[in-house]
Write a structure and sequence with these properties.
The chain is of the alpha/beta class. It folds into two domains: 3-99, Udp-n-acetylmuramoylalanyl-d-glutamate--2,6- Diaminopimelate Ligase, Chain: A, domain 1, CATH 3.40.1390.30; 107-224, NIF3 (NGG1p interacting factor 3)-like (Udp-n-acetylmuramoylalanyl-d-glutamate--2,6- Diaminopimelate Ligase, Chain: A, domain 1, 3-Layer(aba) Sandwich). The chain is 35% helix and 25% strand. It has helices at residues 3-13, 48-56, 81-91, 101-105, 110-117, 146-157, 184-189, 202-210, 220-224, 227-238, and strands at residues 26-29, 39-43, 61-64, 95-98, 121-126, 135-145, 163-165, 169-179, 194-199, 214-217, 243-247. It is elongated.
Length: 255
Amino acid sequence: MTVQELYCFLEDKLPRALSAEWDNDGLCCLPEPTREVRRVLVALDATSDAVEYAVEGGFDLLLTHHPLLFRGIKALVPVGTVPSKLLKLAVNGVAAVSFHTRLDAASGGVNDILAAALGLSDVVPFAPEGEVPCGRIGMLKAPVDAADFARHVKVVLGAPAVVLAGQGRVQKIAVCGGEGADFLGAAKAAGADLFLSGRIGYHRMLDAPEEGLLAIEAGHYATEFPVCAYLAALVREAIPNAAVEMYPTKTLQTF
């Protein structure tokens, strides 16, 4: 299967119609459309380390959740982080593809994986009015103390730390991986006891309990990295004999 054919296979599974209007995912770098895919590197982010690893490891495709090319660049020259990474990939024949908000919204994507990891049942999509239904809301088997649930979240997601705002017992949980502050109001409107996201923001976290909704920040990376295994599985479905490797983002560290 060629790089172009693999992209078409993935886009059929994760259609662009699910993407937010402002998003810029999909094909980012395609120097050799007919190149046969034998090695695929899956990562949350197209960091310089991931790009270098893809090139040095002889990978044909770097497949990420977050887009490498998000804002326009004015020149493809080896100056600046994004142009330099694009040049390195292109010169070495490595394609770069991402699936961002459509992977958040897709069935089986970021937020379904997150809801399943936390043990939620009766899960349904939710979103602010007019937005892509990226979020998920569901039920725990029984009410639990919010602090105990926060500890559970930390263990299940392997998060270095989680931040809890508010006290009490919770059962109806809303989740939105990554930067989910804009979904907080919709989570409350949907009747959630607690809203969990990667990053919500200090002041939004302070205000949430006073507005009747507990909140947990579990980290952008911890809430989204599990989807890399899903992307890897899709590649293996398309090309069973492909060598697929997952690459962790190493730039940010918590001490």
